[in-house]
Structures are given as C-alpha cells and as structure tokens.
Design goal:
435 residues; membrane; mainly alpha
C-alpha cells in the first residue's frame, strides 16, 4: 500500500508539471529533486511551433494592455474625446477581461484548445481593426472590449495549452515564459507607439493574431483534452506529432488517460468541496494575493503611464522607452531566478517594491502640487513609475503560478496520501520550505 501511494503521488505531481517534486516520508509526503537538471528531450519542430503559438497569444495580451498609454493624446485629439471618454476606453478593457475570464474554462473545455484559438483570433483581429478604422467613440470602445474579452480567455488558454503539450522536464520553464511575453507585448506598444500614428499601431498589433491564423493549421490539439473527450486515436496522433514519429508515446498516452480518469473521479463532489474548513487558509491566501495584486494600481500604471510621465514633466517618449527596457530586463531576471530563489522571496521583494514605488510616485505629485522641490519631483515620479512596473514584472504573475501549485497539493497529493485530517499541516510545511 505504501509503495502504491508513493508511485501515485509522484505520477500525479509529474503530470502537473512539478517535475522537481517527489514523494518523501521525511518531508511529510513531498520532497524536492533536481528536475531542473533533466535534459530537454523529444523537442520537435511541431512542439516548438506550438509553444511559439502560445507565445503569440500572450504577446497579443500585452499589446492590448500597453496600447492606451502611448496613444492617449493623439486619440483624444483626433476623435475629440474628453478625459472621461478616453478613461472609459482605457478601463473597458478590464470589463471585457472579466467577461472572458468568467467563461474561459467552459469555452476551452467545450470547443477544445484549437477551436477556441480560432474564436479568439476573430475577436482579437476584429477588435484591432475596429480601433484602427474607427471614426466614432462607440466603435473604438467596441474594439477595446473585444480585446478585453480575448485577454480574459487567453490568460487561461495559453498556459494550460503549454502545460498540456510539453513534457514534464520542460513544462515549468515554458509556462513561466508566458508572463515575460506579456511584458514584451506591452513594451512593444510603448516603444513603437512613441513613433507611429495610433491607427498604424493598431494595425501592427494585428500581427500576432495573423501569425496565429497561419500557425493553427500546423499545431495539434491538446492530447489531454482529446483524452478527456474520449478521442483516443487522435490523442496518440497528437502525441506522435509533438514527440516525433519515432518516439515511444505508449507510456505517456497511458499516463494521460490515467490522469484524466483520476481527475474525473476526484471531481465528482463538485466545486463546493474546495470551501471546506481545512482549505480556507490556503484558498484565501492565494486568492487574496491575486486580488490585492490587481487592486494595487497595475491597470492605472500600465494604461496611463504615458500620461503620468507628461503630468510629472517628463517626455512621454523617453519615459515609455525607458519603461519598456526596464520591464524587459527585470522580466528576464525574474524568469531565470524563480526556480533558484523560490516563489516567496520574489513575492516579498515584488510586493515591497510595489508598495514603496506607489508611495514614491504619490509623494512626487504631492510635492508638485504644492510647488515644493520642483526640480526633484519629476525625478521621483520617474523612479517611482519605473520601480513599480519593474516590481510587477518581477513578481506580479506569481499568484497565478501559485494557484496551480497549491491546487496540486490539495487536489492530487491529498487524496493519494489518504491523510486528510493532517493535510493542512503538510501543506504549511510544504509552502514554507518550497514556495
């Protein structure tokens, strides 16, 4: 029985992409191995193309976020918008994202990953074309909310597709790259938007969507989704496509089928089961981090950073280009050190940076309003904005990563160990040591 629990735990951890975790009695059921040292194998051109496809999705996500910042003054001037009307244009992206996020799971499970990508591209390209050729504010807002709807779904679709097509020894690395691509998409808008007309910028933003239209013909459907809907022959064909025609996919195919069956058997109780008393603390912790991170002002800084620079007395072009460089450098740094330092140190540094930079930016405008230290207040605003966006690039996406990791501990490890009365203690030790 003990050997069966050990094998089942290691299998379920590896199928979720936590290849550096293993079963260990000394560590209360979970230990850490050297999964990061595993050589990348079976990396085919189709797998690389599929990963690039997901990268295009998240790059487009970043483009939608960063578009309003460098274009505010020109859009308001060309279309005769007031500050309130442009504020509606900027914030309506979040409304569309809420709608898309609410139905993202149902849509991707109902239609599959590839068909959902087709649907997203219709909204994505259509949204940018509406913005590029609009002559009325209502069409401008319609295009923006269409992009928000796309973002709400793609924020779920891209990482889950990466996790379902990659092998366990590279799954975590490629999943963390997606957050970096979001930052690059926003940075692209900041830099290019400083030099081109806002309508041209909207047309340039359709490029990730057009690339996806071409790539969808060559990438396979998710093997795990095919197993979930009972299309076993297509599952094997998809695995051969991803791993290579000569690869032995029998073990992986069996593993995927077993994993899907275990999911079906463990989810019969329904979503109400996650609100049990023993899950309250970790659930509130992770959800609280996600909510507080987004309520900390990231949308205001990302959507209107150009206007903030101008208000502080700094050139919008210089500020946005510097901001793009900062996001890129810090994003790459965060991706490289996340598995070395762990989640908690990065979250602490990121949260402290967000708090201090918000305070610094507020102080700079406070000094400006009272005409105190006129020469220094623009510098404080500049440093505060760069520090804020850099801090978010470092750890702003970590709460989303922790969701999947905490879910693995509670949903997969707990039922396998059959020790539910003491699972909370095990998870506390696990989080303190590894997160």
């Amino acid at each position: 029985m003990e050997q069966q629990r050990k094998e089942a735990t290691e299998r379920l951890l590896s199928t979720q992409g936590h290849d550096n975790l293993f079963y260990s009695e000394e560590n209360d059921g979970v230990g850490v191995g050297d999964g990061g040292l595993v050589a990348v194998s079976n990396f085919t051109s189709i797998l690389g193309l599929s990963i690039f496809m997901a990268a295009c999705i998240t790059f487009g996500f970043g483009c939608a976020i960063g578009y309003s910042s460098p274009t505010q003054s020109s859009i308001m001037e060309d279309l005769g918008l007031s500050v309130a009307e442009f504020s509606l244009f900027g914030s309506i992206l979040s409304i569309g994202s809420l709608i898309g996020a609410a139905i993202s799971g149902k849509i991707t499970d109902l239609f599959g990953r590839k068909l959902t990508m087709w649907i997203l591209n219709l909204f994505y390209i259509g949204g940018w074309l509406a913005i590029a050729f609009t002559k009325a504010p209502w069409l401008l807002n319609l295009g923006r909310i269409s992009l928000g709807f796309t973002n709400g779904i793609s924020g779920y679709l891209a990482p889950i597709y990466i996790a379902e097509i990659t092998t366990k020894n590279v799954r975590g690395r490629f999943t963390t790259i997606l957050q970096l691509m979001v930052g690059w998409g926003a940075s692209f808008m900041y830099v290019v938007g400083s030099f081109v007309h806002w309508r041209t910028l909207a047309l340039l933003a359709t490029i990730p969507g057009l690339l996806q239209v071409l790539l969808i013909f060559f990438i396979p459907e998710s093997p795990r989704w095919l197993a979930k809907v009972g299309r076993e022959k297509e599952l094997e064909a998809a695995l051969l496509c991803l791993r290579g025609d000569k690869a032995d996919i029998s073990d992986e195919a069996i593993e995927i089928k077993n994993h899907v069956e275990s999911l079906k058997s463990s989810s019969r109780g329904g979503i109400v089961d996650i609100f049990q008393k023993k899950y309250v603390r970790p659930l509130l912790t992770v959800v609280g981090m996600m909510v507080l991170t987004n309520l900390g002002g990231i949308n205001a800084f990302a959507y209107y950073s150009g206007a903030i620079f101008v208000s502080a007395g700094i050139s919008s072009m210089v500020g946005l280009i510097t901001l793009a460089a900062t996001q890129t450098v810090v994003g790459i740094l965060g991706t490289t050190i996340i598995d070395k330092l762990g989640r908690r140190p990065l979250l602490l540094v990121s949260s402290a940076g967000l708090c201090f930079s918000s305070f610094l930016t507020g102080v700079s405008f406070f000094l400006k309003d009272f005409n105190w230290w006129d020469q220094g207040s623009p510098i404080l605003a500049f440093i505060g904005l760069l520090m804020y966006m850099g801090s978010y690039a470092l750890g702003g996406g970590l709460p989303w990563l922790l969701v999947s990791e905490v879910q693995t501990v509670f949903t997969y490890v707990a039922p396998t160990l059959h020790v539910s009365p003491i699972i909370p203690n095990k998870c506390k030790r696990f989080s303190r040591k590894y997160l």
